[in-house]
């Protein structure tokens, strides 16, 4: 029996399975995705929003905040909560939207090629979920909501030397507002990444 309870069965000749993790920044998605890779007895390829951002030319990305970022991706630092606490939101323009949609197709292509895939996503806007659902249509997808209390999110955010402060708070407001249910949710403040990964894998492998 494998660590994930799957029995260590090799992947078949058909499409791979997909674990879709969605949550705000610093919610623990990347740690969970890495733990899924470690705990599984079949190889899960990892794709995420940060994977896409690493492919974006800097002039179109949020780092330089140049004129081309307004058609690509940029950090909107103008928002504040009701109590006056500032937050940050990643915005995108038409080129950024096109890249996001291409990223959905690219991730799905790995699964259609026979590879298991874990997707580490932070939905920048709720209307991106239907784009993902269309790209992953016909595949065996476990939709997982990755939850975490805001104080824990901000504590993790503060511990990142290069992290963007306020991003977790900013996207926590909308990341789960897509109106669709999850197959399961996990709270990363209640267990280790390995424990949660094994729970996700048991749920995924236990489905017909």
UniProtKB/TrEMBL annotation:
SUPFAM superfamilies given in the database record: P-loop containing nucleoside triphosphate hydrolases
Leader sequence residues: none
Source organism superkingdom: Bacteria
UniProt keyword terms in alphabetical order: Transferase
Gene3D superfamilies in the record: P-loop containing nucleotide triphosphate hydrolases
Keyword Transferase: yes
Coiled coil: none
InterPro entries from the UniProt entry: CPT, P-loop_NTPase
Transmembrane segment boundaries: none
Active-site residue numbers: 50
Pfam families, sorted: CPT
Molecular function GO terms recorded: ATP binding; transferase activity
Protein residues bound to ATP: 23-30
Protein's recorded name: Chloramphenicol 3-O phosphotransferase
Organism listed in the record: Nonomuraea fuscirosea
């Amino acid at each position: 029996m494998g660590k994930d309870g799957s029995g260590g069965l090799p992947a078949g000749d058909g499409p791979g399975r997909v674990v879709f993790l969605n949550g705000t920044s610093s919610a623990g998605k990347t740690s969970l995705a890495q733990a899924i890779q470690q705990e599984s007895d079949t190889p899960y390829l990892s794709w995420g929003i940060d994977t896409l951002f690493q492919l974006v030319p800097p002039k179109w990305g949020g780092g330089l905040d140049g004129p081309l970022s307004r058609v690509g991706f940029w950090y909107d630092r103008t928002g504040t909560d009701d109590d006056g606490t500032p937050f940050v939101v990643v915005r995108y323009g038409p080129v950024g939207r096109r890249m996001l949609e291409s990223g959905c197709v690219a991730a799905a292509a790995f699964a259609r090629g026979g590879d298991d895939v874990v997707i580490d996503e932070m939905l920048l806007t709720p209307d991106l979920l239907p784009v993902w659902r269309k790209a992953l249509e016909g595949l065996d997808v476990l939709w997982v909501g990755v939850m975490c209390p805001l104080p824990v999110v901000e504590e993790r955010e503060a511990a990142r030397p290069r992290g963007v402060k306020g991003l977790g708070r900013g996207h926590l407001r909308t990341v789960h507002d897509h109106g669709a249910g999850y197959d399961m949710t996990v709270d990363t403040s209640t267990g280790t990444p390995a424990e949660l990964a094994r729970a996700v894998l048991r749920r995924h492998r236990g489905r017909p």
